[in-house]
TrEMBL record:
Pfam families: TetR_N. PANTHER family: HTH-TYPE TRANSCRIPTIONAL REGULATOR ACRR, HTH-TYPE TRANSCRIPTIONAL REGULATOR RUTR. This is TetR family transcriptional regulator. Residues 10-70 form the HTH tetR-type domain. Residues 33-52 bind DNA. Gene3D superfamilies: Tetracycline Repressor, domain 2 (1.10.357.10). It comes from the Bacteria. Signal peptide: none annotated. Keywords: DNA-binding, Transcription, Transcription regulation.
Length: 200
């Protein structure tokens, strides 16, 4: 039998992680089994165990892969810091709603991990990444005079995170058509960020 190349092994790992995204998204961490992942990947359980010791290792590799590969937010040149922040908020909301690897993995991280300490650490790492990006935009807004220099950036950051999650809930769970969904999301983000220009 021919030996597997590194490329073959990577292809099999990707096949397993692609399948795991759908299994964990559908069943959550506790109910999912290695047999479910093997079946979804159309591989034997032995083939899956040949790459991962158990479902925790699969879940961690799945999350780390998507977080590393997710397309970074690209700001449009010429926009002010607050206008860029609005675009970032919409980018995040789309990431949570539109079907994709990042959507499935984030849903799993926030809904399906059942407080597994190792997976919680990955969620916290994702949160720190979000907070750092928003903070960078807020600091730019202060330097550009769009926000008062004395604004409490920690509180404003929490406000932005709360706004993203609130708009997501309205748009995702509301009875809206696809076109209405994104029009409403833009309006709500615009309205929410206008508050930041008012006196603190």
């Amino acid at each position: 039998m021919a030996r597997k190349t590194k490329e073959d092994a990577q292809k099999t790992r990707d096949q397993i992680l692609d399948a795991a995204e759908h299994v964990f998204y559908r069943k959550g961490f506790t109910l999912a089994t290695m047999a479910d992942i093997a079946e979804a990947a159309q591989l034997s359980r032995g083939a899956v165990y040949g790459h991962y010791k158990g479902k925790l290792e699969v879940a961690m590799a799945m999350v780390e892969r998507v977080i590393q590969q997710v397309s970074p937010f690209q700001s449009q040149p010429g926009l002010t810091a607050l206008a860029t922040l609005k675009q970032y908020c919409l980018f995040e909301i789309r990431s949570y709603i539109e079907p994709s690897s990042i959507q499935r993995v984030l849903f799993f991280l926030y809904v399906g991990i059942d407080d597994s300490p190792e997976l919680l650490q990955l969620r916290f790492a994702w949160e720190k990444k979000r907070i750092a990006h928003i903070d960078q935009l807020l600091q730019q807004a202060m330097c550009q005079g769009e926000l008062p220099a004395e604004a409490d950036s920690t509180l404003v950051n929490l406000y932005c995170l709360s706004m993203i999650e609130g708009v997501f809930s309205v748009v995702y769970f509301g009875d809206l058509t696809t076109s209405e969904r994104w029009q409403r999301a833009e309006q709500l983000c615009e309205y929410g960020l206008q508050r930041l220009s008012m006196p603190f």
